């Protein structure tokens, strides 16, 4: 397969999961593990919606290989170990996140379930050649909620830089309004009944190999070159 | 810890690194120290000075700022930067080139009283450092007169819990990502075995 065809196929693949994720946790449904007689089901690491080097130079293939192949994989694997043999085994990921969110003694389950969900959502929030101009209803909502696209970008960048320690910055829909929110560590708007449209991972592992201490540069590259606005628009209710 | 380096009439100053930037290589690379000390630690000190300028906190010792702002939601930015400034100075001194090995007798006795053996203490410290979810710190601290292993999130430290820090390991990802990437456990093992400054820890018992 030529590189061009491969790239076109990857582009198409980036569009395919939109509908199913909008309905439920797309690639994060549990599936029966081979050789386990169907008695247990385990979460699988969802496929990355593009090649590991597809976001270069803004996110390096090296960063992606650790971030997706090690961090995301570890959250999925740890979650499977933690919930094996519990009533959560075989349940949708969203349900595990929601039910473990307010239980202090379930912090490990919540952390790994929410991080599994957040990362799958983060990969969908980006695409090669992203960050184009907004259009349609999403643009209207951004203008109405922030006063303009540039004001939205400022609010998103400010929140990302201000998130102290590890965490996430999000664009969420609250009825007729859009908001920028930041969350600490594994916390996620989904656990608080908010509809997430978009996220950027601001754990240091997301950018340290490529940007070191310059988190702001990473977030600006995310907004200008990586954001998948089609995905965000598909999440609007 | 002696705090003469942390005090200043008006502004906090970035305490000098107690060794060369490449002195901890290969356990911690000069490149990591370059960013960690020269950008992160310096950033906390600079942010604190900007935040404290013209307020009641200008001219206070770091310890006083930390005590005065801990747990106050509206003072979170000052607390975070003051505590991170303090934690990092304490972290640099918790390490040394050719560290690790056997603690001095007085510390070893205290460790054995609290944990049974030195290995058990090191294991508990490593577990705390590995399991601190997100950014934070693992500590050996004195609670009254007993040694304990403590882990704290983000900028927090045993100081806010009425304990006396004895030594610390930074487990923010910036502390190890260039050298170890996701392998935090390898970083912690190497630091405990090869860099821990038991002499500094012993001084903090007094
Ligand atoms: Fe991440
Ligand atoms: Fe640090």
User: Shape of chain A from CA axes?
Assistant: globular
Major beta sheet summary of chain B = 3 strands, antiparallel
CATH class of the domain at 136-234 in chain A: Alpha Beta
Ranges of chain A where pLDDT stays below 50 over 5 or more residues in a row are 1-39
What do we call the CATH topology of the largest domain in chain B? Answer: minor pseudopilin epsh fold
Main beta-sheet strand count, sense and barrel state of chain A: 3 strands, antiparallel
Helical content of chain B, roughly?
40-55%
Rg calc of chain B: 16 Å
For the biggest β-sheet of chain A, the strand order reads 4-3-5
- Count up the domains of chain B: 2
Strand order across the biggest sheet of chain B? 2-1-3
**Assembly type:** heterodimer
CATH superfamily of the largest domain in chain B: Iron/manganese superoxide dismutase, C-terminal domain
Could you tell me the strand content of chain A as a percent range? 5-15%
**Overall geometry of chain B:** globular
Write the layout of secondary structure elements.
The complex is a heterodimer of chains A (237) and B (206).
Chain A: H1 3-15, H2 17-23, E1 30-32, E2 41-43, H3 61-83, H4 93-100, H5 107-124, H6 136-146, H7 149-162, E3 167-174, E4 177-184, E5 195-201, H8 208-211, H9 215-226, H10 229-234
Antiparallel strand pairs in A: 1-2, 3-4, 3-5
Helix pairs in contact in A: 3-5, 4-5, 6-7, 7-9
Chain B: H1 30-52, H2 62-69, H3 76-94, H4 105-115, H5 118-131, E1 136-143, E2 146-153, E3 164-170, H6 177-180, H7 184-194, H8 198-203
Antiparallel strand pairs in B: 1-2, 1-3
Helix pairs in contact in B: 1-3, 2-3, 5-7
The complex binds fe (ii) ion (FE2) (2 copies).
């Amino acid at each position: 397969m030529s590189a061009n065809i491969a790239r076109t196929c990857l582009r198409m693949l980036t569009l395919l999961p939109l509908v199913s994720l909008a309905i439920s946790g797309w690639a994060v449904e549990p599936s029966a593990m081979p050789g386990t007689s169907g008695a247990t089901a385990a979460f699988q690491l969802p496929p990355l919606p593009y090649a590991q080097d597809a976001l270069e130079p803004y996110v390096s293939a090296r960063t992606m290989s650790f971030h997706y192949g090690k961090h995301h994989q570890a959250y999925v694997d740890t979650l499977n170990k933690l919930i094996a043999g519990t009533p959560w085994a075989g349940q949708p990921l969203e349900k595990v996140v929601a039910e473990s969110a307010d239980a202090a003694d379930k912090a490990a389950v919540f952390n790994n379930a929410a991080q599994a969900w957040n990362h799958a959502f983060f990969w969908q929030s980006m695409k090669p050649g992203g960050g184009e101009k907004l259009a349609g209803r999403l643009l209207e909502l951004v203008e109405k909620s922030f006063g303009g696209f540039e004001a939205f970008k400022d609010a998103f960048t400010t929140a990302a830089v201000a998130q102290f320690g590890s965490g996430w910055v999000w664009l969420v829909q609250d009825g007729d309004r859009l908001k920028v929110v930041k969350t600490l560590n594994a916390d996620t708007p989904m656990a608080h009944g908010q509809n997430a449209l978009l996220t950027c991972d601001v754990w240091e592992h997301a950018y340290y190999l490529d940007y070191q201490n310059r988190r702001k540069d990473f977030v600006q590259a995310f907004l200008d070159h990586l954001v998948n606005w089609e995905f965000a628009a598909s999440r609007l209710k | 810890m002696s705090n003469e380096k942390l005090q200043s009439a008006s502004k906090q100053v970035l305490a000098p690194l107690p060794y060369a930037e490449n002195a901890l290589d290969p356990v911690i690379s000069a490149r990591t120290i370059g960013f960690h000390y020269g950008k992160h630690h310096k950033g906390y000190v600079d942010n604190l000075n900007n935040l404290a300028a013209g307020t009641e906190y200008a001219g206070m010792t770091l310890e006083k700022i930390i005590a005065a702002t801990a747990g106050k939601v509206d003072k979170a930015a000052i607390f975070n930067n003051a505590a991170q400034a303090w934690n990092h100075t304490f972290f640099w001194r918790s390490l040394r080139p050719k560290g690790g090995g056997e603690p001095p007798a007085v510390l070893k006795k205290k460790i054995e009283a609290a944990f049974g053996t030195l290995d058990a203490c090191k294991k508990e410290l490593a577990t705390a450092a590995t399991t601190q979810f997100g950014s934070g710190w693992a500590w050996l601290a004195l609670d009254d007169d007993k040694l304990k292993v403590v882990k704290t999130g983000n900028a927090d430290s045993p100081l806010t819990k009425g304990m006396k820090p004895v030594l610390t390991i930074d487990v923010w990802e910036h502390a190890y990502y260039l050298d170890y990437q996701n392998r935090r456990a390898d970083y912690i093992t190497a630091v405990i075995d090869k860099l821990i400054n038991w002499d500094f820890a012993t001084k903090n018992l007094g």
